[in-house]
Amino acid sequence: MKDENIHKKIDEAMHSLDNIKKASPRPFLFTRLEARMQKEKNIWEKLASYAARPVIALACICIIIMMNAVVIFSTNNSKNSLVQQNTELAAADEYSQVTTTLYDFENIKP
Amino acid sequence: MIETELIALLKQKDRAAFKEIVDTSQDMVHNTALGILQNAEDAEDVTQEVFIQVFESVASFKEESKFSTWLYRITVSKAMDHIRKKKRKKRFAFIQSLYGKNDESVIEPPDFFHPGISMENKENAAVLFKAMSRLPPNQKTAFALNKIEGLSYVEIGEVMNLSVSAVDALLHRAKGNLKKMLKDYYTIVNSK
After folding, report:
1. B124 in reach of chain A (CB within 8 A)
2. Closest listed residue to residue A12, CA positions, set B5, B127, B11
3. CB B140 within 8 A of CB B128
4. Which of A29-33, A76-80, A105-109, B178-182 has the lowest mean pLDDT?
5. What is the C-alpha to C-alpha distance for residues B114 and B130, in angstroms, rounded to an integer?
6. Is B84 an interface residue toward A (CB < 8 Å)?
């Protein structure tokens, strides 16, 4: 009896949307839509005018120049250190400062 | 005015054409969004987002499918985005409440009553909507398009980019899951 009742309730719930009518939005949707579009447009316009202010533009240019300078100096430094490393190795080679191991003597063939 | 003419005018950003499109298809968009989101305010928000998207990206509409199918696609995708956004907010609020930054508890949404349902079906429909909200997104979308918008399997397939047999399988699974959830619910209610 209980099961029958449950199945009946399930069927009723499953068919509860059968004659559903379409829901409409609140009136004057287009007016609200236009207002929202205008507001969003204004936000972008405000952002664009803010970014176009001389102080902001100058600050952006300074940051870009600084970033470029940092990159240039850091690559120069790494180049210098590489050259120095190579010179040290060449000198060590020249004066046989490189340590040899037993393995080097035993494996003469390349 | 014929739909193709309206679309051509909308591509030129004609305000009158946009107004006519909004006026003729607002119920369709709102009803679909409401069926998926089950909240009137969220549905209104998504409806507006859909029409803004239509206005901004109508140039990309190639007219290979029906305009209504394109509108349904945008509506479904915006509604799904809205659900994801809400879930993210909910999770963030929960984390904040754990750290004591937000004293409000995470509140379960109240029962949803669709305005297009007759009085005698209101209670049953509210239970069904509650179960629907727990369905996986694809099943929920297919079920809402079929039951609330009255779309055929072919039309649902066009909207969701699925074959008719895939839609059939999706709806079969959705109905099976709903029946299971309803059975659990009514068993608990009956035992009280």
Report:
1. yes
2. B127
3. no
4. A105-109
5. 12
6. no
Long-range pairs of A76-85 with CB within 8 A, sequence gap ≥ 24: none
**DSSP single-letter state for residue B65:** S
A30-44, A87-101, B27-41: which has the minimum mean pLDDT?
Answer: A87-101
Q: Does the complex come out with an ipTM higher than 0.95? A: no
The burial of B46, by beta-carbon neighbours within 10 Å (0-12 exposed, 13-18 middle, 19 or more buried), is given as buried
Which tokens sit at B175? 């109905």
For helices B67-98 and B40-57, give the axis angle rounded to 10 degrees. Answer: 130
Chain A contact for B34, CB < 8 A? yes
Q: What is the DSSP letter of B178?
A: H
Which structure tokens are listed for B105?
């508890």
Of the residues B28, B51, B130, B181, the best mutation for testing chain A's interface (the one with the most A CB atoms within 10 Å of its CB) is B51
Residue matched to tokens 């694809």: B138
